[in-house]
Amino acid sequence: MPQCGLRMNNVSFLKQWGKKYGIGIIVGLLLSVGFLVMDADRWISVHTLNQKTAKYTVVIDSGHGGVDPGKIGVDGVYEKDINLAIAKQLQKVLERNNCQVIMTREADQGLYEESDTNKKRADMAKRVSIMNGCDADVVVSIHQNSYTDATSRGAQVFYQATSESGKQLAAKIQETLKRDVAPDNRRQIKANADYYLLKNTTSTMVIVECGFLSNLQEAKQLQEAEYQKKVAQAIGMGVLYYLGESGETKQRKEDSNGDENTAGQSGAVWR
Prior knowledge:
This protein is of the alpha/beta class.
């Protein structure tokens, strides 16, 4: 499967070609075969020599929804609404970069039946079913954070404690969030052994906490369309960098003898 993210170490190679043959010629050549895609005000690198087959499958999970609002911000904003807005922007970024995107939800709805007595459990089980049923290369679950300390702020990416591929994906996304959204963000990726989705999803997965709704300033930013787009672009870039550097993700996962922890539900923390 061709890569939808250009390897970072190919940049020096392109520079050498540019010096030898002229940057205009090289850019024209790359555009002709689909290496570069313009996304807003920046170039996003993609590797799409074969447009029909150059696709990774990415599941975007917009946390909460329906009767479950998620965190409620200090100004009354619902986490579920911000999650969905950012998820839709992320979908655009990845689809423009030749990735097949599967959304767990596309409206304000939970993934449960009205007859379910435990809607939260039913909702989470359905999300896992979607994630595991499509053999995804990457799963990204979008969430917002909250804390008793109103000064807490900054995006943070979580991954399953036993997943090396999840750790690598988390590192790429944390890096691009810091670079493109908040250079002063000192938060680091964090392993977690209890989150239900991380424990029960077999694909490489991360949970992205995009910011703190308990911080008034950050809560307001997270409700702004342009800021949501910036966050989504940063997450998308991290995903593309990971895919570009990990090579054939499915094959690597098969060779790893199952590094993902698919433990049962006991002790699970809903997220």
